[in-house]
Backbone:
């Protein structure tokens, strides 16, 4: 392949799969593949080498989205979310040494925010955020048109927001527990006596019927998500928040979040008068968010060199 026809490799490392895609400079995904995520560092390196070898002659650079606290400047992974074996792995160095190509690394939640900023629901928005609802609550914050990383690369680690003044802090009171979509589905499935505790499809079918067995639980879950959102809003004054994660594909979720948001504002004249309501929308990108957001970060790094 000639140099002017080369594209970019983007890799999205998840707890279950590693997705990898060939993407054009304009963000057009040529194709996507995935591999099962290994559970130890040596197997992970082997899979990564195999992926890189497949693309090296076709691409100009490599972008990576990864869970954990990511030092984007040095390209080091800390803790790695569910992939604890990635702790202190110098991922950028590993890829650059193997391919002799430029590489950038970004946290997965922040990658989702960058994807929305580049080509999605946050395009043209100066101050905005993404909340990803999954096992916990991840996300990214856009301030003055740019991703806010924070002093320690921990901005928008929403799972660690405290939602109680009780001491000692119980992990069931932090945002990552209260706003966990996975936990909500588990609880709803148990109330419905479903065999599969992760049968989100059936849970939402029943929610759309306003099933009285689980709808109060859904309202409580959405209320918790809105509390997290309002706490974030009170600090950084956002225009729009895009909701990500598989659950965000359900229109009833966005409908109920807006309902709970209005309910809180209406219940307090002070909040209602002082806090300008944030616009709540679903993310445009779902499975492709990490791939596209990591690539946008790569372009930012290359443009600044």
Residues:
């Amino acid at each position: 392949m000639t140099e002017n026809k080369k594209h970019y490799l983007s890799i999205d490392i998840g707890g279950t799969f590693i997705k990898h895609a060939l993407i054009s400079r304009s963000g057009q995904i040529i194709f996507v593949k995935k591999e099962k995520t290994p559970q130890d560092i040596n197997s992970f390196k082997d899979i990564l080498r195999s992926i890189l070898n497949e693309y090296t002659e076709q691409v100009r650079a490599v972008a990576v989205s990864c869970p954990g606290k990511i030092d984007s400047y040095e390209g080091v992974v800390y803790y790695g979310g569910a992939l604890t074996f990635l702790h202190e792995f110098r991922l950028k160095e590993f890829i650059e040494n193997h391919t002799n190509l430029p590489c950038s690394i970004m946290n997965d939640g922040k990658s989702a925010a960058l994807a929305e900023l580049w080509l999605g629901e946050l395009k043209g928005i100066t101050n905005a955020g993404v909340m990803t609802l999954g096992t916990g609550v991840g996300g990214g914050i856009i301030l003055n048109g740019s991703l806010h990383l924070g002093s320690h690369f921990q901005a928008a680690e929403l799972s660690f927001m405290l939602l109680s003044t009780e001491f000692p802090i119980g992990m069931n009171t932090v945002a990552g527990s209260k706003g966990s979509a996975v936990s909500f589905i588990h609880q709803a499935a148990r109330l419905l006596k479903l065999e599969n505790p992760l049968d989100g499809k059936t849970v939402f079918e029943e929610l759309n019927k306003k099933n009285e067995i689980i709808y109060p639980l859904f309202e409580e879950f959405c209320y918790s998500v809105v509390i997290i959102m309002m706490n974030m809003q009170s600090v950084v004054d956002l225009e729009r928040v895009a909701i990500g994660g598989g659950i965000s594909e359900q229109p009833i979720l966005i409908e109920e979040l807006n309902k709970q948001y209005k309910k809180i504002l209406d219940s307090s004249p002070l909040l209602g008068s002082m806090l300008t309501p944030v616009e709540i929308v679903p993310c445009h990108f779902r499975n492709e968010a990490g791939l596209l957001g990591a690539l946008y970060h790569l372009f930012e790094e290359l443009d600044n060199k």
